């Protein structure tokens, strides 16, 4: 095996390399000669090899045929393209734009590490071009923010106000960005109910992404894992869906925990516990699959498994014909899970397993069952075979929107180390895909968003503060550097990307929002109840999830989602009580006045810095679908866990003791993102909504009138850096001294 | 080699025994299917199944790239290059199992060859029998052929001194397995000639020193050290092999049937090929 120096240079000398190459090429050449020159009887050596040669021949034949056909029709397509998209690149100021999104990269941490010289690549990028804070959206959460990035409009224009939106008739939550349903027409016979048609997958984000506009102008894009791209759009490019792409269960990620310990506490959120039986060294159980949509009872499909305990630290997992070796505290590769629906139909997903213990109790963790990118049960890429293409080249990969399983760490099933390992396994997959796409993008756009930055900060922010309530009972010292290490790792990614970026390319690194500590939770529905704006039904002291037990006929306002407060408006909500017009306006003013500056009685800190009026901060056709008020929580605060799930009891403030200890769903002014680029930024206050118009302008495409932002760069007539003809004012952003949260 | 051939003849004789009165199609079908499945099992055991899967995936992946980047000629050329390279990688994975399969498949093909390449004579048909003598001390004129009853000389023998070869044209008048005795002085060289209407192993050539001829014609022993002849050949008629009305070379039939069988069983046996 060839050895390599750290810098990637081969230790093998050139002569040896030539010999090595000859050693590979000559046998191949001889085999070819043998095949070409031999009689059929001598060339055919058994069906296995026969298959190999036959398949190779067919593949070569088919690919040459396809290539020939493509080349033959190429002039015609060029001709058509010339007329349809004749302006592509003509007005462009650059031929290639590379965008690396690092979800949740926090300015204060970034600046501190820049100052300490720990982020040399980002520093180099800043010195080449610019660094600035990047204004985020209201609220500062990823689905909202990345939708603004994609479309160049605020939530009033793209209709994504939160992860969830409320059903105006039932007050129940719905996923805001997509809706998956089964076809209404079905063929019924016996126990089966065969859907006549494909699953209905609707994309609920509105407006038009800038890569679609680029595509309309003949510019090809690779868009990888940008949040809120499920289902993928049809456009001139290749896309891999991200946030809100479901698992095989149809959820946003439900892990499974198999244990022989029947005294274990049930998992509260994001997971499913299954008690399995053990006989000697044999453990038997079932992997739960999705609902069986072709059977009338819609029961959950099951896949039996057996785990043979081989020792204290290892076991063998047998699923069907597949045997998987499990080693304690080691992730398996992605394992294919095939659920039989009946009538020969199979639904396939993939999962990784992680053996936690074999004694005293058998404990096995399984990731949420991801849609298999090689045989996707739902559209997770555009074109549909793009995920297949990537999987064939680089192996199977996580396809779930929120792929890093934060719930399992929150619930104490996985420990910090296991979570980190999982997050970086997924990150490595992303990196491979990104660099592959970058290599393929000779001209056009290549955009990728990395999630690990967000998830790791969510789960390890507590380690930056000794007094964080979530530290209680958890290992802290050991993980103090996890976040810093992650920033350094991302800096390495930036460095590797810079090596592949040409001097005439535009390269942008950005985050959609920053990150702060989440120490205390506020349940605004409790405040609304205590102040007479929300009423529970008689006899109800604590509601179930999502407002079970709320008397809507006596309720004027309710907090919903991560940051919104909705008024119960007559004619809009089913049981509306607030008259539109004066009463509506007066109630909003009243709530803004009372909630802005709300004090936490435990420590006297301001918990809400400002309440924002949705009508004032949003613009666009969907303003009325958004929250009437947006909570601007102070640093250290966020909506409480109960508040987020619509549970109403008597606890207004509580300590956050979960591993999920950092957050960004606070006053957007307090959590701006960051932007680095190899070009000077001219805008005084660049924002996420400026990115779409910026990229369009860099490719010489006029921005649509509904986009409110503008090109943030100084632009030139002839190109990017080096040949700059400044027409804009450069704002120098000073690195400010930022206190280490540990100090 | 003669001992190995004798052992293999016995084994394959037993394999063909149940089909002695059947159409030649049936043993071909059965042997091809069994061979296909057996080779599949050997292929699985001797190959790196994961590497094969990876190599195949690479080929398929690059194949999809043609569709994805159809508008970019540069990427298209890259893709073609990648397809060729990954195809070579894929074929490389077949080399090791090929080495393991070489001998058993070779034996099967040779044993099928002696039965399907040529057919025995039919009564009334004529055939040319050639004898080659390399020893210069042997006068071709002194070599004669004693014919058993059931065979008759069609035309007088032709002696070609330049080739050191004598040719006899014989006609079969009866069915049976005849012994041709070539004589030079006290020395005798024997060769069988088959006149039967059945699937029987046919030996078109026997040689004194040519190992290739001995391997490819296992149904009869080689001529032996004392033989004055170096090679005896019989130009048996080529067998017309028909499979359900289609005339095709037996090797093609074996290839297709074994491939179909292997394809049918590969899922069941979990073999990546």
What does the model show?
The complex is a heterodimer of chains A (about 750) and B (about 270). Chain A has 18 helices and 34 strands. Chain A has five domains: about 45 residues; about 35 residues; about 325 residues, Alkaline Phosphatase, subunit A (3-Layer(aba) Sandwich), CATH 3.40.720; about 120 residues, no CATH class; about 150 residues, no CATH class. Chain A has an eight-stranded mixed sheet, sandwiched between helices. A five-stranded antiparallel sheet of chain A has the order 13-14-15-16-17, with no helix packed on it. With about 750 residues, chain A is of the alpha+beta class. The longest helix of chain A has about 40 residues. In chain B, strand 3 and strand 4 form a beta hairpin. The mean pLDDT of chain B is about 90. The two termini of chain B are about 35 Å apart. Chain B is about 45% helix and about 20% strand. In chain B, helix 2 crosses helix 6 and helix 3 packs across helix 4. Chain B is of the alpha+beta class. The chains are: A alpha+beta (about 750), B alpha+beta (about 270). Chains A and B meet through helix 1, helix 3 and helix 9 of A and helix 2, helix 3, helix 4 and helix 6 of B.
Write the layout of secondary structure elements.
The complex is a heterodimer of chains A (743) and B (273).
Chain A: H1 14-37, H2 40-43, H3 46-84, E1 96-102, H4 107-115, H5 120-128, E2 130-134, H6 142-151, H7 155-158, E3 164-166, E4 173-175, E5 178-181, E6 186-189, E7 192-195, E8 200-203, H8 210-216, E9 221-224, E10 237-240, E11 255-259, E12 271-275, E13 277-279, E14 282-291, E15 300-309, E16 314-319, E17 322-327, E18 335-342, E19 345-351, E20 353-357, E21 363-366, E22 370-371, E23 381-382, H9 386-394, H10 406-410, H11 416-440, E24 444-450, H12 452-460, H13 482-500, E25 506-510, E26 516-522, H14 524-530, E27 557-560, E28 564-567, H15 582-595, E29 608-613, H16 614-617, E30 629-633, E31 636-639, H17 641-644, E32 653-655, E33 662-663, E34 673-677, H18 691-698
Parallel strand pairs in A: 1-24, 1-25, 9-10, 9-24, 11-12, 26-31
Antiparallel strand pairs in A: 2-34, 3-4, 5-8, 6-7, 10-23, 11-21, 13-14, 14-15, 15-16, 16-17, 18-19, 19-22, 20-21, 25-34, 26-32, 26-33, 27-28, 28-30, 29-30
Helix pairs in contact in A: 5-13, 8-18, 11-12, 12-13
Chain B: H1 2-16, H2 25-46, H3 49-68, H4 73-116, E1 126-132, E2 144-146, E3 151-160, E4 165-172, E5 176-184, E6 187-195, E7 205-207, H5 211-216, E8 231-234, E9 242-243, E10 246-247, H6 250-269
Antiparallel strand pairs in B: 1-4, 1-8, 2-5, 3-4, 5-6, 7-8, 9-10
Helix pairs in contact in B: 2-4, 2-6, 3-4
């Amino acid at each position: 095996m060839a050895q390599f120096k750290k810098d990637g240079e081969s230790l093998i000398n050139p002569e040896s390399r030539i010999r090595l190459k000859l050693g590979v090429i000559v046998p191949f050449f001889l085999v070819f000669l043998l095949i070409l020159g031999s009689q059929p009887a001598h060339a055919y050596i058994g069906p296995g090899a026969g298959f190999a040669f036959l398949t190779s021949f067919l593949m070569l034949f088919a690919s040459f045929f396809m290539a020939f056909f493509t080349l033959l029709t190429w002039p015609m397509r060029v001709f058509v393209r010339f007329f349809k998209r004749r302006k592509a690149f003509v007005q462009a100021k650059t031929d290639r734009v590379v965008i690396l999104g690092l979800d949740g990269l926090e300015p204060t941490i970034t600046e501190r590490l820049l100052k300490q010289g720990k982020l040399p690549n980002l520093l180099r990028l800043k010195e080449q071009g610019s660094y600035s804070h990047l204004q985020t959206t209201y609220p500062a959460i990823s689905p909202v923010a990345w939708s603004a990035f994609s479309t160049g409009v605020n939530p009033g224009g793209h209709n994504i106000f939160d992860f969830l939106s409320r059903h105006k008739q039932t007050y129940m939550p719905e996923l805001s960005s997509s809706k998956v349903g089964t076809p209404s027409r079905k063929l019924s016979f016996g126990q089966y109910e065969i859907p006549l048609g494909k699953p209905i997958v609707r994309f609920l984000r509105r407006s038009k992404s800038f890569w679609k506009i680029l595509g309309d102008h003949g510019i090809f894009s690779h868009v990888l894992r940008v949040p809120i791209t499920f289902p993928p759009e049809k456009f001139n490019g290749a896309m891999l869906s991200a946030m809100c792409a479901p698992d095989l269960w149809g959820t946003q990620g439900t892990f499974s925990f198999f244990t022989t310990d029947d005294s274990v506490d049930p998992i509260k959120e994001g997971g499913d516990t299954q008690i399995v039986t053990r006989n000697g060294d044999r453990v038997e159980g079932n992997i739960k699959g999705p609902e069986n949509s072709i059977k009338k009872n819609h029961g959950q499909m099951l896949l039996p498994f057996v785990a043979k305990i081989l020792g204290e630290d290892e076991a063998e997992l047998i699923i069907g014909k597949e045997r998987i070796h499990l080693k304690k505290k080691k992730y398996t590769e992605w394992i294919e899970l095939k659920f039989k629906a009946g009538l020969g139909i199979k639904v396939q997903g993939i999962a990784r397993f992680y053996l936690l213990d074999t004694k005293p109790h058998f404990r096995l963790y399984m990731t949420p069952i991801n849609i298999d990118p090689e045989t996707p049960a739902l559209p997770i890429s555009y074109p549909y075979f793009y995920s297949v293409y990537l999987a064939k080249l680089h192996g199977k990969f996580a396809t779930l929107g929120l792929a890093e399983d934060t719930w399992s760490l929150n619930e104490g099933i996985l420990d910090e180390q296991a979570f980190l390992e999982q997050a970086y396994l997924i990150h490595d997959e992303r990196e491979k895909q990104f660099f592959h796409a970058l290599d393929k993008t000779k001209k056009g756009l290549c955009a990728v968003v990395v999630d690990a930055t967000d998830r790791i900060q969510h789960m390890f922010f507590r380690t930056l503060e000794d007094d964080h309530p979530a530290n209680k009972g958890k290992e802290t010292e050991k993980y103090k550097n996890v976040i810093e290490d992650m920033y350094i790792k991302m800096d390495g990614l930036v460095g590797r990307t810079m090596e592949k970026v040409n001097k005439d390319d535009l390269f942008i690194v950005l985050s959609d929002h920053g990150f702060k500590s989440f120490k205390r939770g506020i349940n605004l529905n409790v405040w609304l109840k205590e102040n007479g704006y929300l009423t529970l039904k008689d006899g109800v002291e604590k509601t179930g999830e999502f407002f079970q037990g709320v008397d809507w006929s006596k309720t004027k306002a309710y907090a919903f989602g991560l940051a919104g407060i909705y008024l119960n408006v007559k004619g809009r909500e089913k049981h509306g009580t607030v008259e539109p017009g004066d009463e509506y306006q007066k109630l909003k003013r009243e709530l803004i006045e009372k909630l802005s500056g709300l004090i936490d009685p435990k420590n006297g800190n301001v918990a809400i810095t400002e309440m924002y009026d949705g009508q004032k901060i949003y613009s666009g056709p969907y303003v009325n679908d958004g929250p009437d008020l947006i909570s601007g929580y102070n640093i250290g605060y966020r909506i409480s866990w109960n508040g987020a799930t619509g549970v109403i009891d008597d606890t207004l403030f509580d300590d956050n003791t979960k591993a999920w200890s950092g957050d960004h769903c606070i006053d957007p002014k307090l959590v701006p993102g960051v932007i680095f680029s190899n070009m000077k930024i001219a805008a005084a206050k660049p924002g996420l909504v400026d990115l779409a118009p910026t990229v369009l302008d860099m490719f010489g495409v006029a921005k649509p009138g509904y986009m409110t932002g503008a090109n943030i760069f100084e632009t030139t007539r002839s190109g990017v850096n080096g040949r700059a003809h400044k027409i804009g004012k450069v704002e120098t952003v000073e690195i400010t001294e930022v206190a280490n949260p540990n100090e | 080699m003669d001992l190995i051939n004798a052992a293999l003849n016995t084994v394959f004789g037993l394999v063909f025994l149940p089909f002695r009165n059947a159409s030649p199609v049936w043993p071909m079908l059965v042997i091809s299917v069994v061979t296909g499945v057996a080779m599949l099992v050997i292929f699985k055991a001797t190959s790196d199944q994961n590497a094969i899967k990876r190599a195949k995936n690479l080929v398929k992946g690059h194949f999809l790239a043609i569709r994805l980047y159809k508008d970019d000629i540069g990427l298209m050329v890259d893709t073609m290059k990648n397809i060729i390279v990954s195809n070579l990688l894929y074929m490389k994975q077949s080399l090791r199992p090929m080495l393991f399969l070489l001998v058993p498949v070779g034996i099967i093909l040779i044993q099928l060859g002696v039965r399907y390449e040529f057919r025995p004579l039919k009564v009334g048909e004529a055939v040319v029998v050639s004898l080659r003598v390399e020893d210069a001390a042997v006068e071709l004129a002194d070599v004669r052929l004693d014919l058993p009853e059931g065979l008759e000389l069609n035309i007088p023998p032709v002696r070609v001194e330049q080739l050191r070869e004598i040719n006899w044209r014989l006609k079969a008048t009866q069915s049976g397995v005849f012994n041709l005795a070539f004589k030079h002085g006290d020395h005798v060289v024997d060769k069988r000639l088959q006149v039967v209407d059945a699937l029987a192993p046919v030996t078109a050539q026997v040689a004194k020193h040519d190992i290739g001829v001995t391997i490819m014609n296992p149904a009869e022993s080689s001529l032996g050290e004392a033989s004055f002849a170096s090679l005896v050949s019989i130009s048996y008629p080529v067998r017309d092999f028909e499979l359900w009305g289609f005339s095709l070379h037996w090797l093609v039939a074996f290839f297709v049937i074994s491939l179909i069988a292997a394809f049918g069983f590969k899922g069941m046996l979990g073999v990546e090929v």
